[in-house]
Write a structure and sequence with these properties.
Length: about 260
């Protein structure tokens, strides 16, 4: 636990410095995490992956982030093109049906969902709201961890993640909602959008639910391929994808909600 806390403090300190540098610095950080997460993902689901597999996945995923940031209305077309190219790649060499499907999911799960962060940063939602989503996801994950550690008795999803408990999940959910409730009172200080209170509360609910599903989804894939973590970039936390797995579902659910129901 000590190593986990130290890594978290160092990572948050570095994030604070990057935020001070502005939107472009945060966007570059998204590109870096996208590339590292895709590398870890391919390495996990295809043990005999070739250099071309890594290059194509990272290039296609990075392109999605650029389109999301600067040409948001063309994101669907960019996604279709990326999926076609990634799938075609799997027709050459030794065909691997499972990896072909996994590659398509990897582009959607990692790069498409992370492109929603890029879209938030450079549109009316704004960088600070995107950061609140990310921080609230960290709060949810942290409180779920400590809630389970202190009160956990009933397994949440034993077949996928034996250590997660219902009590921990409830703690994470409650603090995710409280986190966004608190964020409602910060627009004057962080240039957050002046949404109604119900919008902030719904965002907290979405994060409290879907960030935990994101974590479990990542665990499902790791269990399938008998991997404890996707990588070892962050001591105590695993790899880049281990750190952002819940954030990806949070970003996707909040982005969809805001664009469909709040109509920015």
């Amino acid at each position: 636990m000590k190593q986990r806390v130290i890594t978290a403090v160092v990572a948050l300190s570095m994030l604070a410095v990057i935020v001070l540098l502005g939107e472009w610095a945060v966007f570059v950080l998204c590109l870096i995490f996208n590339a590292m997460a895709l590398y870890e993902y391919v390495k996990t689901v295809k043990r005999n992956a070739k250099t071309a597999d890594y290059i194509l996945m990272i290039a296609a995923g990075s392109a999605l982030l650029f389109v999301g940031a600067f040409f948001e209305k063309y994101l669907l077309y960019a996604l279709a093109a990326a999926l076609i190219l990634v799938f075609i790649r799997n027709l050459f060499g030794v065909p691997d049906e499972a990896h072909a499907v996994n590659s398509v999911w990897g582009i959607v799960y990692i790069s498409l969902f992370l492109s929603f962060a890029a879209a938030m940063i450079f549109n009316d939602i704004g960088m600070y709201f995107c950061l609140v989503v990310i921080i609230d996801t960290v709060i949810c994950d942290t409180m779920a961890y400590f809630g389970g550690y202190l009160f956990g008795k009933h397994k949440l999803c034993k077949a996928v993640s034996p250590k997660k408990t219902i009590e921990g999940s409830v703690c994470g959910f409650i603090f995710a909602v409280l986190g966004f409730f608190a964020a409602y009172y910060l627009p004057d200080y962080l240039s957050l959008p002046e949404f109604d209170l119900w919008v902030y509360i719904v965002c907290g609910i979405l994060i409290g639910v879907f960030s935990q599903f994101g974590d479990l989804s990542a665990s499902l894939i790791k269990r399938k391929y008998q991997a404890k973590d996707y990588g070892n970039l962050l001591p105590g936390h695993g790899g880049a994808l281990d750190r952002i797995d819940g954030m990806l579902f949070s970003l996707a659910s909040v982005y969809i909600f805001l664009n469909v129901f709040v109509q920015l």
